[in-house]
Amino acid sequence: MGAIIAVINKWGGNATETAVAMFKMLKHKSVENFGIASPKIVKMEKSIEALQNQDVNSAVVIGHVSSKIPTLGKSQPIRLEDATLVFEGRIYPTTTEVSDAEVAAKKLQQNRTEAIKTLIKETEGDFAFSVAEPERIIAGRDAMGIRPLYYGENMDFAALASERKALWRIGIKTVNSFPPGHMALANRSGFKFKPMKTLAYSRAKKMRMQAAARKLQTFLQQSMEDRVSGLKEAAVAFSGGLDSSIIAFLAKNSGVNVHLIHVSLENQPETDYAKKVAEELKLPIHICIYDEEDVEEVLPKVLWLVEEPDPVKTSIGIPFYWAAEETGEMEIKVMLAGQGADELFGGYKRYINYYLRLGSEKLRKMIFHDIVKMYESNFERDFKICDFHNVELRLPFATYQIAKFAADLSVKQKIELPDNGLRKLVLRQVAENLGLSQFIVKKPKRAIQYTTGVDKTLRKLAKRNELPVKQYLQKTFRTVLKKMM
């Protein structure tokens, strides 16, 4: 676990000092190693202070920050032939013999540009990477965008980083998410992106509900096996809803010791429901109850990690922060979550209203857009939060195979229309086929920000400050930035 950076000085000057400045924004409590590299030289230190005395004397510099999670193999950056590599992520199926970074390095030793294309196109995994070559950087990101990666440029630098704040620190004001499934070539002129593995919209494929459910079940079981292979235990961010119940059930059936982590504010009815589902699944549940003061206290931390004062992302990020925190305190290194299921299978209530106004095909296009943008709406937020707590987030729903399958489904396989509007129909059929109880299979979808009480509490805090929620979050975010930057 860790973060990566890459920077090019557009004027040909030494970029080492700039890389160190970027590192200062990535120093979390769990960080223990810093490494920087030119295309030929690698330097590693235990602290930023020690790293400041190092110099790779290059206009092209990449870097890696690693946490205290034990990892196999070499520290990073890794030397390649006439280049260096930083790699953050997982390649599935995992191996216990060498690190994922070394697997990637082996693939990229020869015919590098073509090898990078192959890595992105053909590798199943959650990853982001950057290669420093003389005069340029080559970077890539997995097709679903699970691992955060951002890019930007100004008059002086073209740079990439796992967090926006590292780019803000060096004066890059406009920061964008690196497009998933793409390769980027960066030099003194800036960035050029090439798509390698992306989703394309097409008309719905004809498939009966049971056939679709069986196929989806096979994909989910394989995805889970890939993501828990080699693990003895894992936590599950657990609401008690359909998505997290399926994740917990599949993880348990894969032979992992599962711990359900349920977080909520006081006196929320969903907590009793989560206990009932845990009992049904025969899994231990760890319940963490918070209050209004806890929300107010954690808010600046969550905004700093999420890196934007968006009301929805914040109200989801707060309970996710608590779940990751509890997982870390239990010394469990991997947390599984059901993120992505709502976009993939039509889980949001707004989809019903959109259908009633504009019809089935327009709704399919809307859902496809949401699937393509899951990395921005969900994955980046949650991964940065988990990384802060030294916990690795793994998302069994978020595979390219499942996303492509879901994008090709018809609306009627996702949403019951037009009467009662039950959603995620094909996923409910999977749950029924797995043998889950009907009260789990038929449970209506309710968003976590409402079931935990966080949304209501944020509104209360904003009202106390005589501000609308959005302005209250913006004000808090500005204060955090001023303090931390």
Number of domains: 2
Low-confidence stretches: none
CATH architecture of the largest domain: 3-Layer(aba) Sandwich
Which class best fits the helix and strand makeup? Answer: alpha+beta
Quick one: CATH superfamily of the largest domain? HUPs
**Overall average pLDDT:** 92
Which class of the largest domain in CATH terms?
Alpha Beta
The Cα radius of gyration reads 22 Å
**How would you describe the shape?**
globular
- Which strand order do you get reading across the main beta sheet? 3-2-4-1-10-9-11
Task: Please give a structural write-up.
It is globular, with a radius of gyration of 22 Å. The two termini are 23 Å apart. It is 44% helix and 22% strand. Helix 10 (311-329) packs parallel to helix 14 (374-388) and helix 12 (350-358) crosses helix 13 (360-372). Strands 3-2-4-1-10-9-11 form a 7-stranded antiparallel β-sheet. By secondary structure, the protein is an alpha+beta fold. The protein has helices at residues 16-23, 48-51, 100-107, 112-122, 164-169, 209-228, 242-253, 269-281, 292-306, 311-329, 341-345, 350-358, 360-372, 374-388, 400-407, 425-434, 438-441, 448-451, 454-464, 469-484, and strands spanning 2-9, 31-37, 42-45, 60-67, 78-80, 83-92, 124-133, 136-141, 150-153, 157-161, 176-177, 182-187, 190-195, 233-237, 257-265, 285-290, 334-336, 392-394. It has 2 domains: 2-195, Glutamine Phosphoribosylpyrophosphate, subunit 1, domain 1 (4-Layer Sandwich); 209-471, 3-Layer(aba) Sandwich (Rossmann fold), CATH 3.40.50. The model has no long low-confidence stretch (mean pLDDT 92). Strand 7 and strand 8 form a beta hairpin.
